[in-house]
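[User] At your convenience, examine this fold.
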Amino acid sequence: MLDQSTRAAILKLQQQGHSIHGIARALKVSRGAVRQVLRSGRRSCPPWCARKGDPYRDQILDCTHAAKAT
């Protein structure tokens, strides 16, 4: 998931006439991610993105801490 500043940069570069490939290369993101942002036309992440992992937050943190301990 791209943060708000990256999404804003994608939209700004597109307005300046840069290609999808050029934007992706400059920001080191995939062309598919650039396309998704351009299709949505939004600087902020869709509301469902932030909440998708919430039910699994504790499990994710436990796995992360366990991996760091080894």
Remarks:
- The chain has a mean pLDDT of 85.
- The chain is about 70% helix and 0% strand.
- Residues 57-69 form the longest helix (13 residues).
